[in-house]
Known about the structure:
Blueprint: H1 2-42, H2 47-53, E1 73-76, E2 79-82, E3 87-90, E4 99-103, E5 109-115, E6 132-134, E7 141-143, E8 150-156, E9 162-168, E10 172-173, E11 177-180, E12 184-188, E13 194-200, E14 204-211, E15 214-222, E16 225-230, E17 237-243, E18 248-252
Parallel strand pairs: 10-12
Antiparallel strand pairs: 1-2, 2-9, 3-8, 4-7, 4-9, 5-6, 5-8, 11-18, 12-17, 13-16, 13-18, 14-15, 14-17
Amino acid sequence: MSAGGRTRAGRSVGPNLDGFTVLVSTLGLVVAAIIGLAYADAGDFELDRIGAGGGGGDYALSPWTNPDPVVADESDADTYRGPDGAVIRLTGLDVDTPIVLTPAEDTRVSAVWVTGADGRIVTEGEGGEPPRFSTLWDGQIVILVEQPDVELWIDGSGDEPWEASLRFDRGLRADDVLSSSQTLMFTHDGGATTARLSARGGDNLSIQAVTAHGSERPLTEDSPFDRSIAWRDAPLVLFYIESWHDTAWRIEFPTDAGSTPTPTPEGTP
């Protein structure tokens, strides 16, 4: 009899413990949900704002149309941080000096769109959209503008914040002819929209052209070659020529902006 009583008592304890465990687990999930909602309402994670700026949000492909964009944080002098789609606002710029954006290590920035204040399109890029400036071969992004007050909209990674530094550098200037066997960045303000580019020896040669309308890649080709290149009409243009394995190159601009330079002789680059 006593053994049977202990057996019945043991069976009665099991359901009580299981019910207590379920109750505690349920209460724990409810408390966790309440805490999570409290943090979300406080905006600690800024999930809505980051999503609105990019990374799959409604404004991912056109962040300048966002009525409430995330403004990039200037944590240091000329160093900015923010989520995908965040905006950097600059005023009082010298329109004759390129803006050079250098992403930090382990930071992904694929392009920058440029507008005037409040996302207003001042200079048009492709398809009536704002000018889009993509990365150069060395990972930097060079931007040319036509007005002193601009907004830079960062096309980064939707999952991770970005960090980048800004500097202003005109660099080397080319008036009529420039030749080298190295990778160079330089500007030309002679009003030309075409040039003659030739290369000899070595390997591959790539050229990227940047105007206030955005960036483009007129040519990527194995040497030797001798041909004309063209870009959109603009008072200032910046070129980035990437020379692989010391490929020798020469670029010649027309002395008259309305003419095309004569072909370079085959003997020399």
